[in-house]
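Support request, please re-run this one:
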Amino acid sequence: MKFDYEVLIIGGGPAGLSAALSLGRMSRTALVCDDSRPRNAPSSHLNNFPTRDGIHPAEWRRLAKKDLEKYQTIRFFEGSVLSVEKAVSGFSAELSSGIRVRFKKVILAYGVEDTFLPVPGFRELWGKSIFHCPYCHGFEIRGSRLGFISNSEMTFHMLPLINALASDLILFTNGKAEFGEEEKSILIKNNVALIEEKISGFIFEGEQLKAVSLENSEPKERQAVFFQPTLPFSLKSRIGESLGCEKNQFGFYKVNERGATNVDGVFACGDNVSPAHSVLLAAASGTMAGIGAVSALLGEEFNGN
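Re-run finished. Output below.
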């Protein structure tokens, strides 16, 4: 079977670009497909990344792509991968341009799809005054009057981080709390207010949150809010599932230390394999998936497969 590329990388964010860099460093051919839907597009900065702390996400991607220019084995396609099918040898994929490409390995780097609260103001403030990660955005709003929207088993894992940043904190469960009296006593002990009422919207000016509106009581003044996504996470594509890749209870692909899924020749990396979501961790995950793909390719060549 003739292959167009050795590896198809689906997703051109930190994970996909880092995977491409690993492949380029070993002169392996790869096609990076990106449909221009970066998760951090609403944000004006990314943080907690040494040498690039505070950089605009689009600028980070530009610099990462510039780094890849010297690797002539790496190519880009601006569009979507519609489907991937496992062949007798390798894989074939249909692109949104209508062409079909053949390759030996695939790296799933397309990340997750954020689910927004269906209330006025949430989408407008996402990445600006409503955030998902205290490490990514907490420093800039430290000492503020904060809110935390969460009502799941993960609530009390993230709560200490947000409480440490806040001058005062309200936990909004957006309905009846799904935890018991023991957890409520912890909130009281740490001066965290609990509101179990439904959220009806957000009051804001420009990109700045002013207050959280509630269904049956007065709005609560807040300067920023953190949002705990509903589990399991939704991924940006179902290509991995169509190939038979297993997922865990949180909606992430199960992978080994080099990003290999349970499907031979398929690797995954970035936000779709771990709940720890940041540009730095996604990039590290992508590097390892790229290394995994390189090792598989070279192993097959070395052993004459």
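The first strand starts at residue 5 and ends at 10. Residues 38 and 121 are 21 Å apart (CA to CA).
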